[in-house]
Amino acid sequence: MKPITEFYTLLNDTIISKKVVITMHQKPDGDAMGSTLALYHLLVKLGHQVQVISPTNWSSFLDWMPGADLVWDYEKSRMESEACINAAEWIFCLDFNVLYRTKNMEQVLTEAKAVKILIDHHEQPQTEAFDYGISITAKSSTCEMIYDFIIASGHRDLIDPDLASCIYTGLMTDTGSFRFPSTTASVHLAIADLKNLGLNHSLVHEHIYDSNSEERLRFLGNALLKRMEVLYEYNTAIMTIPKSDLLTFHTKTGDTEGLVNYLLSLDGIRFGAIVIDRDEERKWSFRSKGDFDVNLFARKHFNGGGHKNASGGNSPDSLAETVQKFKTVLLDYKSALN
Ligand code: 5GP
Ligand code: MN
After folding, report:
1. Residue nearest (by alpha carbon) to ligand 1 atom 15
2. pLDDT by residue (tens digit) across 44-84?
3. Segments making up each domain of the chain, as ranges
4. Residue 35 to residue 141: CA distance in whole angstroms
5. What is the model's pLDDT at position 191?
6. φ and ψ at residue 223, rounded to 5 degrees
7. Does ligand 1 come within 6 angstroms of the Cβ of 27?
8. What is the pLDDT of residues 165-214, one digit of tens each?
9. What is the C-alpha separation between 122 and 295, in angstroms, rounded?
10. Is 305 in the pocket of ligand 1 (CB under 6 A)?
11. What's the 331 CA to ligand 2 centre distance in angstroms?
C-alpha cells in the first residue's frame, strides 16, 4: 500500500472524469455513511462519476444525510452494484480495513481491477488488499481523515454546509459526542473550521439523537430493566437481547446502536458487552474505559476486532452458549478489570 500523499498527486493530475465507487463496512454507522458521503460530494465537485455502495442497508436515522438517497444497497441491487464495481477505475474503502467487513461484497471487491484506496482508523489493516492508503488508529473517526484528505489535497474551497454536515456526523458519533479520549485538539479545530464554512451542528444532533420512535424507546427501557446483568466483581456489565425482543418491539436496523454505552454509564463499570441474537449470528459489541483492550478481547474470543475501547465480534453458538462462553473467558480477566 503506497502512502495516500501519492494519491493526492494522481487526484490532482487527473483531468478526465473517472468512474469511482466508494464503499464502507456493512451496516454503516454515522462515521461510515458520513465519510463516504463527504468524499462523494468532493469527487462529484471535481467532475468524477461517483457511486456510493453500501454492502447492506443502514439505520433510517442516517437518511437525512445529503446524498443518502443516492446510495445503493448491494443486497438490494446486486447486479447493478457488481457491474459498477467491475467498471470502476478507483474504489475507495472507508471506515473498514479488512474486506470481509463488506460481507457479501468481499469477493467482487477482491477481484475488482480498480485502483483501491483505503482511508481508515481501525487496528491491523489488510494492507496488501489496497494500492494506496492511510491507516491511523489514533484518529477519532474516518470523517476526521476525510477532512484531512480534503485539506491536504488542496480542496478546502469545495467544503460546503452539506459536505460539512457529513463530516460532522462521523466526528460526533465516533467520539461519543466528543467525550472519548480520541477527541483531540485537531478534532475541535476541524469543527471550528467547518463552523466557519457554514455547518449547522445543532441540526445534525437533532437528526441523529432526537429521532427515536416510541417503540425504540420502549425497547431500550425493556433492555435496561430486564436484559442487563452487572458483574460487580469484574467491573463489567452485559446485556443479552433475545430475538423475541427484536420481534416484540419491531426493531429496525440501528435501533440497537448505542445501547452498549448505557452499560459504561454505570459507576465503576469498565467493560460493557452486549450480545444480540441476529438471524445468522450472535453479534457482540464491546466497550471499555481505560486500559482494558476490547480489540484484543474481541479478536481472541469472538472472531472480531475494532479499537482498543470499542470493538465487535460474533459467535455461531446459541445465545445462551455464547453468553456462557463470555462468562467463562471473563474469569481470566478478573485482575485486568480490577
Ligand atoms: P459496533 O459495536 O459499533 O458495531 O463496533 C465497534 C467497533 O468495532 C467499530 O469500529 C467496528 O467497525 C468494529 N467492529 C465491529 N464488529 C467487528 C467485527 O466483527 N470485526 C472487526 N474487525 N471489527 C468490528
Ligand atoms: Mn469509524
Report:
1. 312
2. 999 999 999 999 999 999 999 999 999 999 999 999 999 99
3. 2-209, 214-337
4. 9
5. 98
6. -65, -45
7. no
8. 999 999 999 999 999 999 999 999 999 999 999 999 999 999 999 999 99
9. 10
10. yes
11. 30
State in Å: Cα 141 to ligand 1 middle. 13
DSSP assignment of 211-261:
---HHHHHHHHHHHHHSEEEEGGGTEEEEEE-HHHHHHTT--TTTTTTHHH
Pick the CATH number of 214-337 from 3.90.550.10, 3.10.310.30, 3.40.50.1000, 3.90.360.10: 3.10.310.30
Q: Is the CB of 285 under 6 A from ligand 1?
A: yes
Atom 16, ligand 1: residue with shortest CA distance: 312
Q: Which of 239, 21, 9 is nearest to 114 (CA)?
A: 21
Measured at the CA of 193, the angle between CA 192 and CA 198, to 5 degrees, comes to 95
Query: What does the buried/exposed string (b/e) look like for 109-144 if buried means 16 or more CB atoms within 10 Å of the residue's CB?
Result: beebebbbbbbbbbbebbeebbbbbbbeeebbbbbb
Residue nearest to atom 2 of ligand 1 (CA): 285
Kindly state the helix (H) or strand (E) to which residue 83 belongs, with its residue range.
helix 78-87
pLDDT of 253 reads: 86
Ligand nearest to the CA of residue 34, numbered in listed order: 2
d(CA 255, CA 133): 32
**Burial class of 264 by CB neighbour count within 10 A (0 to 12, 13 to 18, 19+):** middle
Residue nearest (by alpha carbon) to ligand 1 atom 3: 285
Assigned architecture for domain 2-209: Alpha-Beta Complex (3.90)
Q: Residue written as cell 457511486?
A: 51
Q: Which ligand is nearest to the CA of 142?
A: 2
**Hey, whose CA ends up nearest to atom 8 of ligand 1?**
311
φ/ψ of 174, rounded to 5, equals: -75, -15
227-253 as b/e: b if 16+ CB within 10 A: bbeebeebbbbbbbbeeebbeebebee
Q: Smallest Cα–Cα separation from 94: which of 198, 146, 24, 194?
A: 24
